[in-house]
């Protein structure tokens, strides 16, 4: 099980996972450091710190692309893979949230995006105090 470096952040992850059935999620800093996590220590050969850094990088690229195309603020990113999905969302200027969605989780795309967006808003509110 991953680390918790952020007090109430782990409670937000726990509530998110209980509400959605998603078993692996994390809150990461914009520079890719794990703030709170329920990611497995090893995720498909990568450790949670590498996964967190890649998630932050992916979110940055999405935001930069949207800015370049004048599409406004990025809401969420959903990556579809053969064996599941990864959802990402910014949670203010200092954090981002991510969830690994196994193929056994039967959430519709809209429900996934709503849930990750809601988690991001809660994290932002907590961090901004």
In brief, what are we looking at here?
This protein is an alpha+beta fold. 42% of the residues lie in helices and 26% in strands.
Describe this structure in words.
With 129 residues, the protein is an alpha+beta fold. It has a single domain (8-128), classed as Beta-Lactamase, CATH 3.30.450.30. The chain is built from 3 helices and 7 strands, in the order H-E-E-E-E-H-E-E-E-H. The strands form 2 sheets. The chain has a 5-stranded antiparallel beta sheet, sandwiched between helices. Strands 3-4 form a two-stranded antiparallel ribbon.
> CATH first level: which class?
Alpha Beta
Number of helices: 3
State the CATH architecture. 2-Layer Sandwich
Helix content: 40-55%
Describe the SSE topology:
Layout: H1 8-20, E1 24-29, E2 34-37, E3 42-43, E4 46-47, H2 48-68, E5 77-81, E6 84-90, E7 95-102, H3 109-128
Antiparallel strand pairs: 1-2, 1-7, 3-4, 5-6, 6-7
Provide key terms for this protein.
five-stranded antiparallel β-sheet; Beta-Lactamase; 129 residues; alpha+beta; single chain
